[in-house]
Design a protein that fits this description.
275 residues, alpha/beta, TIM Barrel, nine-stranded parallel beta sheet, 17% strand, disordered N terminus
Length: 275
């Protein structure tokens, strides 16, 4: 597959930690990426990191607001935000505001969240993955309802909205695109993603990716109009992504790595050409 294939888009994935906790530097990277021809810049959404990693952390939502005002074309979004440690109305307001600020360039990535850095247990958040999955399902449904601008009466097991009208509506209609993370070939998260707009598989090989997309096809009937976001690797080379159903290639540095500005300033083919 050639890089010029219009079916494949390219995203820079930045961890806002260490030196990149400087929001001004994140904006500089985003502007450079837009000029260089990248299609999106996505930020990790975490509140704590492992002891061996940089401990300085920027809030991705505030950083994305700054990026939105400094760019005009490139898409932005968190990859991914765990609803379990958020209040849906707060997230709905932030997402709508950012969608307006960016003139409709927000893609909202959602997931269960992880506790590898104690960002759940450290604050007394829910750890049980089953309950986090329930909260993710309820929270996504509530977000979509709130974005309609109509009166919402939602009474779930985990979240409530009692006669709530949330205005303005997002710029993007019928709503802001929702992509869902799924790790290691998990089928239930793939089925969840299939009900929305995109799947972000994490730590998968080619067989697991294929199995996940089979689940998506079973739910949707096809992959038409559905985004699949893959970080190419030795297990899934860049040149095979389009044939495997991917619509986005995503790449970026590990927390604390240098050379990020050089990557952002270079065209995508330099980052993906050898992968």
């Amino acid at each position: 597959m050639l890089l010029e294939d219009l079916t494949m888009k390219h995203a820079l994935f930045l961890p806002p930690f260490g030196a990149l906790a400087d929001p001004g530097l994140l904006v500089q990277h985003a502007v450079a990426a837009e000029v260089a021809g990248w299609d999106a810049i996505f930020l990790w959404d975490h509140v704590l990191r492992r002891p061996e990693e940089p401990q300085e952390i920027a809030d991705p939502w505030v950083a994305m607001a700054a990026i939105a005002t400094a760019t005009t074309r490139i898409r932005i979004g968190p990859m991914v935000t765990p609803i379990t440690r958020r209040r849906p109305i707060k997230l709905a307001r932030e997402a709508t505001t950012l969608d307006h600020l960016s003139s409709g360039r927000l893609t909202l990535g959602l997931g269960l969240g992880v506790d590898t850095s104690r960002e759940l247990t450290g604050f007394g958040e829910i750890v049980d993955p089953l309950i986090r999955g329930q909260r993710l399902d309820e929270g996504a449904a509530l977000l979509c309802a709130l974005w309609t601008g109509e009166e919402v009466n939602f009474h779930g097991e985990h979240f409530t909205a009692d006669s709530i009208v949330a205005l303005p509506r997002p710029v993007q209609q019928p709503r802001i695109p929702l992509w869902f993370a799924a790790r290691g070939g998990a089928r239930k998260p793939a089925a969840r993603a299939a009900r929305f707009d995109g799947l972000f598989p994490i730590e998968v090989d080619a067989i697991q990716l294929s199995e996940m997309l089979d689940v998506v096809r079973a739910v949707r009937g096809s992959l038409d109009g559905f985004d699949v976001i893959v970080n190419p690797s030795e297990k899934i080379p860049y040149a095979t992504l389009a044939d495997r159903g991917a619509t986005w290639a995503i790449t970026g540095p590990a927390p604390g790595d240098d050379g990020t500005l050089e990557m952002a300033s270079s065209p995508p083919e330099k980052a993906f050409g050898t992968r």
